[in-house]
Amino acid sequence: MISKKWLLNYHLMLLPGILLLIVFSTIPIFGVVIAFQNFIPGIPIFKQDWAGLDNFKFMFQLPDSRRVFVNTIVIASMKIVLGMIIPVTFALLLNEIRVRSFKRLVQTIVYLPHFMSWVILSGILIAMLSIDGIVNQIIGLFHVDPIMFLASNQYFRHIIVWSDVLKEFGFSAIVYLAALAGINPSLYEAAEIDGASRTRKLFHVTIPGIMPTIVLLSTLSLGNILNAGFDQVFNLYNPLVYSTGDIVDTYVYRIGLVEAQYGLATSVGLLKSVIAIILIAVSNKLADKFANYRIF
Amino acid sequence: MVLSKSWGTRGADIVIFALLAIVACISLFPLWYTIALSFSDKAAVNAGRVFAWPVGFNLSSYKIILEDHKFFAAFLISVKRVLLGGAINFVLTVIMAYPLARDNKMFPGRKFYVWYLVFSMLFSGGLIPLYMTITELHLQNTIWSLVLPGAVPIFNVILIMNFFRNLPKELEEAAVVDGAGPWYTLIRIFIPVSMPALATVTLFSIVGHWNSFFDGLIYMNKPENYPLQTYIQQLVVRIDPALMQTLTTEQLIELSKASDKTLNSAKLIVAMIPLLLIYPFLQKYFVHGIVLGSVKE
Q: Which InterPro entries does the annotation name (chain B) (predicted)?
């Protein structure tokens, strides 16, 4: 069925997309040479001074750079762990409900925050956590003095992690609900005939049934250990909480686009990308090994 | 099979119901609270008297927004961006997924293209090189800076490619026998039978365009070019970092009290309306869409 005319059309269909990818994805990859230059804006890229590894050496001397990598890994790990436990628990609870209408109502409500932007949600959180906001009103009932939550290094990471959980737990649970729906009903019937209680069924049928999904998603989440969530942190942080809340991506934005240190910013970004690629490769390898998972 | 439930089981049911009801309330509360603030009296909000119900109900903040030309200009830019960006994403997804869904022997170049897509998905130059590319192309302050960098939604292309591959082969063979060309086959056969899947990925790309603020912030130099989310980010969310470092805690508290929470909340709600309008459609499709993601040959 191969005809020249069809083949030509296949290439034609792919052409616009490929051209766009070349311009906006492949060409910028060559731009990472800035990381090895003393880049001065306004001069063409091939006429810049080469700096070798100076930007990287400088980066490792800056206390800020070390701090942002630590913050990123801490925030991202907390998100990965809670972003696994809470959706699984929620899916297990929802799975016990047999009243269809209630189930659907709960699902409709908890999926909604996933589709709100971090700009909107941050606006809401700022209002809720402000000095005269609802959270301070509630703790005021217990005679606790008002707290400036978003300016407090003690609370900032928790706010980031828990608000992310609040936004995403429902949507993340969909995968587990699908896995739960896929468990063979005859397993439950067999367990019932054997006289298994509800708890026994949970531990011997339900949880083993979704274990492969849990293992797979935890392995793949390893690739996210440097993604602490730029949009969220950018909209909630401020200089008072840089020491616990500044992450790699916000740091790259500030030193690069605000302070115009292009060379340094690119080298920080490049280091992050290289580590991320290695982590993604490793996590996919592990997923293939443990769960027979392959993207392609 | 009718099982008589023991008291223990029924008790557990009640606890689970209650837990889920609480969780749902917590999920909904931020939105609810913002609505309550937006309809409340300014003084009541600043005195911290609004809890879960508007105090001193009034519509004045919504009236202010209705007369705010800048807000509507930003709203319009976002609408334009969603329409243009969503259309480009849709067209590129189908015209790229269709040839890539052929067998390797029917389309010898396929493997190369797929690898290039995967490569582009995994590797990027990062923020600074992309920013410089956009500047070099003089796309700053144009709507193209918002829609072209993400024009090819690679993940969606791969999803739809897998979806097309699972369609019965007879569909296409029948079209070929009738003398149809590839474009006709794609537009008249593949697109109509894949509508639910295509609706899913298109709705997601529309939400993505509506929600993104960062590209608007870095590529638009003039505030009058900001899309809505960037506009809101600058007015409602952002605190001037320089201010933050010079002011004392007491001054910061005063600053926070002086901000117009009622008006800000109303702005957040208006910015959410389009999303709430398409949410029923989203919900209808996305569960299907996630299952779609796991479909493989």
A: MetI-like, MetI-like_sf
Mean pLDDT of chain B: 86
Distance from CA of A221 to the nearest CA of B (A): 15
CB contact under 8 A, A266 and B126: yes
> C-alpha dihedral over A149, A153, A156, A157, to 10 degrees?
-160
Q: What is the pLDDT of residue B233?
A: 92
Mean predicted lDDT score pLDDT of chain A: 90
Measure in Å the smallest separation between the Cα of A178 and chain B Cα atoms.
8
**pLDDT tens digit string along B87-146?**
999 999 999 999 999 988 889 889 999 999 999 988 888 889 999 999 999 999 999 999
**pLDDT average, residue stretch B67-92:** 95
Mean pLDDT score, A56-80 = 92
Q: How far is A274 from A13, CA to CA, in rounded Å?
A: 33
What is the pLDDT at residue B297?
32
The answer, yes or no, to whether residue A49 has pLDDT greater than 90, is no
ipTM for the whole complex: 0.87
Query: What pTM, to 2 d.p., does this model score?
Result: 0.88
Give strand pairing partners of A49: A38
Q: Which residues of B touch A132 (CB under 8 A)?
A: 45-48, 256-257
CA angle (A226, A227, A230) in 5-degree steps: 130
Contacts of A116 in chain B (CB under 8 A): 211, 272, 275
Nearest CA in chain B to A13: B95
Q: What are chain A's domains? A: 62-291 (1.10.3720.10)
Which tokens is B48 given? Answer: 């911290």
**Rounded CA gap, A102 and A125, in Å?**
28
State yes or no: pLDDT of B294 exceeds 50.
no
Task: Render pLDDT for B143-178 as a digit per residue (tens, 0 to 9).
Answer: 999 999 999 999 999 999 999 998 888 888 888 888
* Model confidence at A285: pLDDT above 90: no
CA-based max dimension of chain B: 79
Per domain, the residue ranges of chain B are 59-294
Dig out the tokens for A209 from the structure.
């049934």
**Best interface-test mutation with A: which of B128, B169, B279 has the largest number of A CBs within 10 A?**
B128
| 3-state SS assignment for residue A37 | strand
Residues in contact with A212: Cβ distance below 8 Å, sequence separation at least 6, in sequence order: A179, A291
Q: Which two tokens stand for residue A222?
A: 């390893």
Q: Say which residues have a Cβ less than 8 Å from residue A105's Cβ, sequence separation at least 6.
A: B24
Name the residue among B239, B241, B268 with its Cβ closest to that of A123. B268
Q: How close does chain A come to B258, measured CA to CA in Å?
A: 11
Under 8 Å CB pairs connecting chains A and B tally to 264
* Cβ contact, residue pair A115, B232, below 8 Å: no
Measured distance between the N- and C-terminal CA atoms of chain B, rounded to whole angstroms: 37
CATH annotation of B59-294: 1.10.3720.10
**CA-based nearest distance A1→chain B, Å:** 7
